[in-house]
Amino acid sequence: MNRVLLADRAATAVLWGIALFVVAILAAIIGHFVVDSLPTFTLSFLFTEPVSDGIGGIGPLLFNSIYMLVLTMLLTIPIGILGGIYMAEYASENRFTNLIRLSQEVISSVPSIVVGLFGMTLFVIGFGWGFTAIGGALTLLVFNLPLLMRLCEQAIRAVPADERAASLALGSSKWQTIRHAVLPVAIPGVVTGIVLTAGRVFGEAAALLFTAGDAVPSNYDYSFISLFDPRSPWSLFHKGTTLSLYIWNLRTESTNPDKETIAAMSSMVLLVMVLLFNLSSRWLGRALQRRVSGL
Amino acid sequence: MTIQQGASPVTPTPPTPVPVSSLQPAVFPGIDPNAAVKLRAKDVKIRYGARVAVRDVTLDVPEHSVMAFIGPSGCGKSTVLRCFDRMNDLIPGATVEGTIELDGQDMYAQNVLPVEVRRRVGLVFQRPNPFPMSIYENVAYGPRRHGLKDKGRLDELVERSLHRAALWDEVKDDLRKKSGLALSGGQQQRLCIARTMATDPEVILMDEPCSALDPIATLKIEELIAQLKTEFTIVIVTHNMQQAARVSDRTAFFTLGEDRAGYLVELDDTLKIFTNPANQLTEDYVSGRFG
Predict the structure, then answer these.
(1) Per CATH, which fold does B35-126+203-286 belong to?
(2) Is A162 exposed, middle or buried (0-12, 13-18, 19+ CB in 10 A)?
(3) Contacts of B199 in chain A (CB under 8 A)
(4) Can you spell out the DSSP letters for A27-44?
(5) What average pLDDT does the segment A201-222 reach?
(6) What is the CA radius of gyration of chain B?
(7) How confident is the model at residue A37 (pLDDT cuts 50, 70, 90)?
(8) Cα B96 from chain centroid (whole Å)
(9) Do B190 and B167 touch, CB atoms closer than 8 A?
(10) Check: CATH 1.10.3720.10 for A46-293?
(11) ipTM score here?
(12) Exposure string over B51-90, b if 16+ CB within 10 A, otherwise e
């Protein structure tokens, strides 16, 4: 066989192999937890409270995971997108913007446990808040914001200059051009950024351990709605232990005889949540793009 | 024979002088001598940083006429064109000296907003650049940004603009179903013209609008230009001299000087430029001996 053809076949085979390997890892992880947890899984596991002896449930932890996700993304998404717009469209290239980019990279690569210690020093001890959901969310913001900002900046920069020129030539202002011509085209990139940062909120344990705490919650009264009273599960100042931290807690401190089963089931729930969030964000992004493009 | 770098793909070699009989009689005997001056450039010099790109441009564009800018690549035709809607403002380091007037008013005066200028002067680009939106949203884009919200009036404006761009019959059934990018190149360019007309400009600038199109699509755009000049003042940059001869009333010939800066050599009735130009450089260019 011709050497060029042989090299082509070999390259194709290697690339296929790598792709297959990645899919196989994901399948193995999901398969492992499904096999481990499906026999004991019941729907009530999702909604009941954890117990110290027996399987119990993960209701409050699931609630906290979603609560932390919403709270963190409420802070991250607007600031991240606006910051990305500033860096892509308004900031001039100078030492100040280079400093911003350098900081973004440094913060993104700092180990999350270090960021967690910083959050503890500032929010838990410095502000005297103790372990709170808002302290955890603000700590997550520290390393999520630079990442989302950078990803948004890249998505906006990737929009062809033709789109901007066309909009400006029609007599639109710079902001109108960004809002109506540039952002709609950048939506898929922005959604990817949101999915990546949101995944870190679901999965993060180290940074939250020192800021939101890993206390196993009980006696959640969802009818008690308050933004500031720590006794309300809706409060910014309640202890926001997430599902990831519950898994951590089970495998370290817990004396529960069923802890391994609970950890496996919780892991599966976590995986499914990440997957659902990923798919629904992409669907939402596409729907949004259809809406703004009038198609 | 050497092939000119950057020459338009439509005319790889400059054509021989256009015989008078092939010129469209509708365009002549030229423009109303009493027509008001719509655009005026006086002693214009444009720099990119320290480099002078174009110098010594003085010209008047009468209302409801078509003026063509011709000349070799790099002579600054597009640069001059983009001064008329302040699109050069977007290029860092570009500066304009001299005066440019729209209806006798200085377009570069302190109190004039570029956004306002661009509402009165539209620009059609070399490469068709519709937005990745539905045909309807493409045309409605400008009016929406200028504050038009009423759905009935928008519908009416979109339909009228597409009619004027001779595109309505081809797209009326999928205004909201089809993306502007799903149209053919020629249709995309007519969509861009419709989009520009929807903002109700007084002047339409065209920067080599047919260079990316096939001959049939080109012919459609040229027919369109002939119709549009009853309502608009049009300035068109073209590399295709037959096109300049077919569509324009007056032609301005630019070339590159010894100092590597472009300048305006001659401006006259199109018929005269192509049959009996006053300047030897023009004569050489239109007869294909140079350029």
Answers:
(1) Rossmann fold (3.40.50)
(2) middle
(3) 170-171
(4) HHHHHHHHHHHGGG--GG
(5) 84
(6) 19
(7) confident
(8) 19
(9) yes
(10) yes
(11) 0.84
(12) ebbbbebebbbbbbbbbbbbbbebbbbbbbbbbbbbbbbe
Tell me B17's DSSP state. P
Picking from A165, A170, A184, the nearest residue to B142 by CB comes out as: A170
Span A86-109, pLDDT tens digits: 999 998 888 888 898 888 888 888
Confidence label for A1 from pLDDT (cuts 50, 70 and 90): low
Q: Is A293 near chain B, with CB under 8 Å?
A: yes
Domain ranges of chain A: 1-40, 46-293
**Contact criterion met (CB below 8 Å) for A177 and A168:** yes
Who among B85, B130, B137 is closest to A169 (CB)?
A: B85
CB A144 within 8 A of CB A201: yes
Q: Which residues of B touch A180 (CB under 8 A)?
A: 141, 144-145
Backbone angles phi, psi at B92, to 5 degrees: -60, 135
Q: pLDDT (tens digit, 9 = 90+) per residue, A39-59?
A: 888 888 888 888 888 888 888
- Domains of chain B, residue spans: 35-126+203-286
Q: Quick one: pLDDT band at residue B1, thresholds 50, 70, 90?
A: very low
For tokens 């070799």, name the residue.
B72
Distance of CA B196 to the CA centre of its chain: 12
A 202-261 residues with CB < 8 A to B: none
- Contact predicate B100/A156, CB 8 Å: no
What is the residue whose two structure tokens read 């149209």? B183
To the nearest whole Å, the CA of B87 is away from the closest chain A CA by 7
- In chain B, which residue's Cα lies nearest the Cα of A162? B129
pTM of the model: 0.81
Quick check: B151 contacting A, CB < 8 Å?
A: no
